[in-house]
Each structure stands twice: as structure tokens, then as C-alpha cells.
Amino acid sequence: MAEKEESGEAGEGKTELQIIKELVDELYTFRDCYFDTHGVEEAVRKDGDVKQKMEQTLKRLEEKEDGLKHKAEFLLQKGRCLNVAQDFSADAEECLSQAVKLDPRLVEAWNILGDQYWKKGDLIASKNCFTGALQREKNKVSLRNLSMVLRQLPAASDDEHGKHVLESVDLARDAVQLDLSDGTSWGILGNAYLSMFFLCGQNPQFSQQALSAYAKSAADRIASSTPDLHFNRANLFHYEELFGCALEGYSRAAALDPNWKEPPEKEKQLLEHLDKVTELTRNKGKVKTRRLRTMLSSLNTSALGPCSSPQFSSPSGHVGSLEPRPLSSLTQGHNAGVAAMGKVVFSLASEGHVAFTFGMVDSEETCIAVMVYNTANTWGVLIGDSVVIPEPNVKRHLIQHKDKSYDFKSIRVDSPLLLFVNGKKQNTQSQIPISISYQGHRRLKETD
């Protein structure tokens, strides 16, 4: 009789746990699929609506608390309910800590506790939770979250940081392989590849892999509603000079989270930068005609410096002197065996932007924007300087965003060390690896 009663109590407990789990599942569905039932113009209400739904769910859970025998599982669901909000919750931490003490086998509780420590900024405790969960069961949540934590852990040296990034990529890949349809895992893999891109000498292979992973994430119904994804991808688009895509991404991130100030600020900064570049390029830096012609009168092949030597070795591996060509004759893409040469007519500091930009006018008085990456804060060019760009990479930008449109050409230079200014190669102090900040899960900023 006693055994039957125990069996009945266990069955009743299991039923109750199923009910509360379904209640919490409904809460997460409400949050993750909010825009299935609400227009994007209602995004400003999302956090408040989710909080209200959380409080309603929490009340229903607490009504069932006394009758539950399986305390650990109940504490897991209560902690999971409290974890739905973006911010750290001390109550959630307490519930989940008790749950894993009562039943260390609860992998989901370890994962959510690790998420709480992440929100709290306690990276070591967060790492320990995800590592412990993986020791019990290989799962995508622990893998991808540990990937994020490793990229944030303080490192004693560049080598140690490099090892963290390499391991984070492997973890993110493993998470994706466990569920190829999970957009959240694809987004975190994109962030990991972005870290690899800047760690490994900006190898374009990793940039393309990051963009590919972001595209997979954006195709997912739930992940596509995450503003972080659009913001992170927009930052990479910006670096790749896909300015129209970058503007669209910043705008989408701002629409999905109107309370987040950084995306609209980035959008505004980029639009203002494009306004300045196009206006100054069109007006040749607003340099007066007489002064411009005086500047150009001193422009001659002596500015080519080492580029005029038969032994000159270009970045592409070409050996031999480069032929100076007017800007009007350059084709889009890489121009092998030739050099662009001109006088600086304007410059824009890189503050708030990923490149130092200046305008250059050649002997035909054609003006083009030049965007130089990986520059030290102390590096720059002055109006009137003679600049030579070996084998220039030319791009035409056609951008339409909201009520703005742009049409201009530019030359991309990946390092100031590739330039010759007034006939001289730039010293190594002029270069410093670029850094792009991006947003990790729950707004904890990641920087590479």
C-alpha cells in the first residue's frame, strides 16, 4: 500500500512538473517569438511585456510550490523563469544554485546558472558552470556559451588569448554540428570567426566564414529577432565597406531594441561620414583652384620612390617598377602592375570609424576617397602631401538608405605600411591592428 502511495505521489509530481515546465516554455516562446504577434513598432514595449508575463508565470509557479515533491526540478523552472529577463537576477542565482546542489545531474540548471553568472560579470564562475555541464552531457547550449566566455576571459599574454579564441571557435563549431538548424549557435559561431579574423592577420577566409554564419543565423525565425545579430553583422559589413548593408543592420538592430542607444548612433555616425566623404570628394576638399594647381605642379614621378625601382616587390608578389596611372583609368578591383599617385586635399580622422579616410587628387584633377585601415592614432597625412598607392584596390559604392543616396569611388588600403607618402615608406609605428567591438549574448560587450 505504501509503495502504491509513493508511486502515486511520484506520478502526481511528474504531472505538476510537466505543467510548470509548459508554463515556462510558453514564457520563452512569448519572448523569442514576440514579433510573430506584434509589429516591430511595438518593440519599445517588449521588455515590459516580457517582464509582466514573467511575473504572471512566476505567480502561477509559486502557487504550486508547496505541493511539489521534486524540489530541485521546481527550483530549475523557477530559476529559468527569472532568467528570461536580460538583467542579472539574484533570486534566479539562488534558485539555480540550490537546484544543482540538490541534483548535480541537472545540466539545464548548470547552463542557466552559468548564464546568470555571465550577466553578473563573473566569468570564472560562468565558465565553471558550462564546463561542469559538459562533463555531464555534451550539449549545444554549454558549448556555445563556453565559446563566448572563453573569448572574454582575461589572458596573461597574447598567446593565451589566441588559444582561448581558437578553442572558442572549435566549441562554437561543435554546437552548430549538434543542431544545424539553431540560429543562435550560428550567430555565436559568427562572432567566433570574427575573433579569428582579427587574431590571424585579418585573413579574409575568416571574415567570409563569419558572414556566412551570420547569414545562417539571420535566416532563423528566433535568432533574426535578436538585435545583437544585426548589430554584429553590421559592424563586419562596415569593415568590409559594404556600407549599405551596414546601415540596414544598424537600423534593424535599433528597431528591434529602441532602448539600445549604440545602433542608431552607429547608423548616424556612418551616414554623417558618408555625407562628408562624398561632399569633400565632389568638391576636391574645397581646395581653391589656384592652390590645387600649385599643389599638382609639384606632383611628378619622384613621388613614386621605391615603386619606380625594377626590384620593387608589390604586396601581390609582382616584381618590377609600377606604372603610374591616372585615377580615371583604374578599373574596379585590384589594379596589378600600376600605381595611383596624387595630392592629399582632405582627411577625416578615424574616431568612431574603422578607417582613416583622405581624399587624393591626381594630375587630371580627378578626386577619389582613400580608406586606410589598421592605422595608429598618431598616423595621418596632411593636405598637400604626395601619396602613392601601389596596385590600388578600387571600389564603387552605390548606396541607398532611407532618404539618402550615395555614389562614389574609393581605394581601400589595408595598412599604412602599403603607402608611400612624399616618396617615403611609412614606419612600423604607423600601423596598429584594428579593433571592432561587438555584442555578445545579453549585451555583455566583446572586443577583438
Q: How far is the first residue's CA from the last residue's CA?
A: 65 Å
Low-confidence stretches: 1-13, 441-448
Number of strands: 12
Write the element-wise H/E pattern from the N-terminal end onward.
HHHHHHHHHHHHHHHEEEEEEEEEEEE
Strand content: 5-15%
Share in helix: 40-55%
The largest sheet is: 10 strands, mixed
CA-atom Rg in angstroms: 28 Å
How is the secondary structure organized here?
Layout: H1 2-32, H2 34-37, H3 46-63, H4 71-82, H5 90-102, H6 107-120, H7 123-136, H8 140-152, H9 158-178, H10 183-199, H11 204-218, H12 227-239, H13 243-256, H14 262-282, H15 289-297, E1 323-325, E2 333-334, E3 338-348, E4 356-361, E5 367-372, E6 386-390, E7 393-401, E8 404-413, E9 420-421, E10 424-425, E11 437-439, E12 445-447
Parallel strand pairs: 1-3, 5-8
Antiparallel strand pairs: 2-7, 3-4, 3-6, 4-5, 6-9, 7-8, 9-10, 11-12
Overview features:
51% helix, 15 helices, alpha+beta, elongated
Structure description:
With 448 residues, the chain is an alpha+beta fold. The protein contains 15 helices and 12 strands. It has helices at residues 2-32, 34-37, 46-63, 71-82, 90-102, 107-120, 123-136, 140-152, 158-178, 183-199, 204-218, 227-239, 243-256, 262-282, 289-297, and strands at residues 323-325, 333-334, 338-348, 356-361, 367-372, 386-390, 393-401, 404-413, 420-421, 424-425, 437-439, 445-447. β9 and β10 form a beta hairpin. α1 runs antiparallel to α3.
